[in-house]
Every structure is written in structure tokens, then in C-alpha cells.
Amino acid sequence: MMDAGQKPIVVVSKCLGFDVCRYDGAALEAEYMQDLAQFVHLVPVCPEVGIGLPVPRDPIWIIQTNDGKRLVQPTTNKDLTDLMTDFAERFAGELKHVDGFILKSRSPSCGIGDCKLFDAPSLDRQIGVADGFFAAVLQRRFPDCAFVSDKGMLDHQVRQEFLQRIFASARKRAVNSME
Ligand code: SF4
After folding, report:
1. DSSP 8-state secondary structure symbol assigned to residue 34
2. Which of 12, 86, 114, 163 shows the greatest Cβ crowding within 10 Å of its Cβ?
3. According to the model, what pLDDT value does residue 124 have?
4. pLDDT one-digit tens code per residue, 39-54
């Protein structure tokens, strides 16, 4: 039996049942979180609230520009790229130990490879898909960690693979801490 210190540590998008922090103020259900919380130490975070955006808020988008991808809020003309990148880097730097991430799909901040990418400046033509800005930094900073979306957690095989990886990672941490 694992003690609390050996539980896998998993960062989760806060809107997955922990807080009503989505842009539209809607609540999301993630029933598996309650079961997971018995065996895993969950660390909820909402990067959009983390950079000071209110709830509810106008949507933000990922656009392709000549200077690369940018995270923008068209209704306010705000470019949030640097704010979000700085927040993500700081958050990653403060994580002492982590074994995995469960992130909200299709969010321009949290999405893993499934966010709409629009062309600039028209904003009305999707030209591809991209990682959310928060998720992109985390994947770069933690290349050995398991990442899964909320949608992936609903797929039996994907969920099993994720759980195997985070428990293996936690066991490895426990062994390393004894050396
Ligand atoms: S998807 Fe990420 S940024 Fe959006 S509300 Fe959820 S936690 Fe916040």
C-alpha cells in the first residue's frame, strides 16, 4: 500500500470539477476525479484565471502570425502570449514533483494538440490545430511525464495507460528518494 508521500502527483485543469472557472462560467463534470482523488494527489490549476482573466470572460484564440503563434483576445485586442507563457514557466518551475497531467481538451490554454488554430488577421478561417499555450510549456518542461486530456480519460485503454504511467513514475520517485 502506498503512503501519501508516494501517491502520484497529477496536475489537472481546474475546470474539471474543481471550480467554475471556464470562460462561459459553465460547470463541468468529471466524475472520475472523485475516484482518482483517493489514490492520487491532484493539483488543480486554471492558467487563464492565473493570468488575471475574469469569469466569465470573452473567448481567447490561437492565431498564426508572421511572428509565430499568438494567444489573443480579439474583443479586447489583448495579446496574452507573454503573460500566459510567463505564468506557465513560473508554474512549471514551482512544481517540485509531478507524475502526470490531465488537461481540458480544445482549450487555447490547456488543450493538448487539439486547439483550433486560426489565420491572422481574419480570425474566421481555421488553418490547423495546435497545443494550448499552457500545455505546450508543460509538455516541453516535463517530457517524461504522462499527459492526457479529459476526453482521453473517458477511453478505457487511454485511461489505463495513463494510470500505469503515473503509478510507475511515483514508484520510481519513491525508490530514488531512498537512495
Ligand atoms: S481549460 Fe484551462 S484555462 Fe480553461 S477554464 Fe479550464 S483550467 Fe482554466
Report:
1. H
2. 12
3. 80
4. 999 999 999 999 999 9
How many CB atoms are located within 10 Å of the residue 22 CB? 20
Q: Which one of 10, 11, 12, 14 would you pick to mutate in the ligand 1 pocket, going by the greatest count of ligand atoms within 8 A of its CB?
A: 14
What are the structural domain ranges in the chain? 4-178
109 lines ligand 1 (CB under 6 A): yes
Ligand 1 site, residue 138, Cβ cutoff 6 A:
no
For residue 1, give every residue at least 6 positions away whose Cβ sits within 8 Å of its Cβ, in sequence order, or none. none
Q: What is the pLDDT of residue 5?
A: 56
Q: Residue 127: CB partners within 8 Å, gap ≥ 6?
A: 64, 117, 118, 119
What one-character DSSP code corresponds to residue 113? S
Cβ distance 116 to 106 under 8 Å?
yes
Q: Give the 3-state secondary structure of residue 155.
A: coil
pLDDT beneath 70: ranges in the chain: 1-5, 121
Give 12: exposed, middle or buried? Use CB within 10 Å, 0-12, 13-18, 19+.
buried
Contact 132, 82 (CB under 8 A): no
Greatest Cα pair distance, the chain, in angstroms, is 57
| Positive or negative: CA dihedral 38, 36, 16, 48 | positive
